[in-house]
Specification:
It is built from ten helices and 16 strands. The chain is an alpha+beta fold. It folds into two domains: 204 residues, no CATH class; 97 residues, no CATH class. The protein has a three-stranded mixed sheet. Strand 13 and strand 14 form a beta hairpin. Helix 3 runs antiparallel to helix 9. The chain is elongated, with a radius of gyration of 26 Å. The chain starts with a helix and ends in a 7-residue tail after the last strand.
């Protein structure tokens, strides 16, 4: 019995005290080699925002960093595989070596690490900081497994690579690309999605004072009113500002409730601009006015087009494969291994 207790105490001491100390002494460099790419893996030029320069790396190595950055590593493996295939398709569609236009913001790069117009990406050091010492090893190899198991697989529509749009959480249903971006895409069609209703990013409420909204949006919640009066026998115009009757009014929205056009105060915004200016999670929103505050509640996280990542995780936990997931969120597509017969 004493021997068992001794080994338990010794094990805990090594794990809790010695291992972190050794890691610290080595400069916090728990070294894990990158996943080996295929011999035929093309090279991609990535503008790394943190380094402010273009870095060339094997495509499959780049994808490991994308999957780690774009989807929680705690998600089911089949969801991570679906993310890897979507990310690979996204990247190949933009690679200049395959006829793509490259990154619009950084000439000379195929993609960049800014998720607003390309895909997020993390280095191994970034992953270590994000996951912590004890989660780094299992999460790194889980993500590596997702990328390795799907090497070469892409999504096509009528033989051509698709624009593999994806987002975090659709809030209950995805939307047609035409309803969000005003451009119809046959494979980016809205789908019901109730696989993630309990997720932590499903709903969020933010409060803004009227003064803050006026400042951040450059709007006015008052209207100019001119009244003609007689003063000392003369007719004069008295100008005053009075509160606007309707502070917020949705002009157009998608079938799933995402705001396309909205009036706030005396200005009109499209939903994407409003989301960006106010730091909202989604354009699927509702609001109410309480005193001097406007309370805005959003449902979901992201633009709502293409693959819902939380929905993908929910489907995977129900036993669906990565191919099932991709074919659900992208209408009429095929998941194929990359060959010379695939077009942009």
């Amino acid at each position: 019995m004493r021997r068992i207790v001794f080994f338990v105490v010794a094990f805990c001491f090594v794990v809790v005290i010695v291992l972190p100390s050794l890691i610290a002494l080595r400069g916090c460099s728990l070294t894990v080699p990158p996943a080996p790419p295929l011999a035929s893996s093309p090279e991609i030029s990535v503008y790394v925002e943190a380094q402010k320069k273009i870095v060339k790396m094997p495509l499959e190595q780049y994808l490991l960093g994308v999957v780690a950055a774009e989807m929680p590593a705690s998600f089911a493996l089949e969801a991570l595989k679906a993310q890897a295939v979507a990310a690979r398709t996204f990247a190949l569609k933009r690679m200049r070596a395959f006829g793509g236009q490259g990154c619009p913001e950084h000439p000379g790069a195929d993609v960049c690490t800014d998720h607003r117009h390309c895909q997020a990406w993390k280095s191994a050091d970034d992953m270590r900081r994000m996951w912590g010492y004890f989660e780094f090893i299992p999460y790194y190899y889980k993500v590596s497994q997702a990328v390795k198991a799907t090497e070469g697989y892409v999504i096509t529509y009528q033989g051509k690579l698709i624009d593999a749009a994806y987002h975090s959480n659709c809030g209950g249903a995805t939307d047609d690309a035409a309803d969000v971006w005003s451009a119809p895409v046959p494979y980016l069609r809205g789908k019901p999605c109730n696989f993630h209703m309990g997720s932590q990013v499903f709903r969020e409420q933010k409060a803004f004072s009227l003064e803050e909204l006026e400042r951040r949006l450059g709007v006015s919640f008052a209207v100019r009113k001119v009244m003609t009066q007689r003063v000392n026998g003369r007719t004069v115009d008295v100008i005053s500002r009075v509160p606007m009757a309707g502070l917020v009014d949705v002009i157009a929205q998608s079938p799933q409730g995402r705001v396309k056009t909205i009036r706030i105060g005396d200005k009109i915004f499209n939903g994407a601009d409003l989301r960006d200016k106010l730091g909202l999670r989604s354009t699927r929103l509702s609001w109410r006015i309480s005193g001097n505050e406007v309370l805005i509640q959003t449902t979901g996280y992201g633009h709502g087009v293409g693959m819902c990542q939380y929905g993908a995780d929910g489907m995977a936990r129900q036993g669906k494969s990565f191919e099932d997931i991709l074919k659900y969120y992208y209408t009429g597509v095929e998941v194929v291994r990359l060959t010379t017969g695939v077009e942009r």
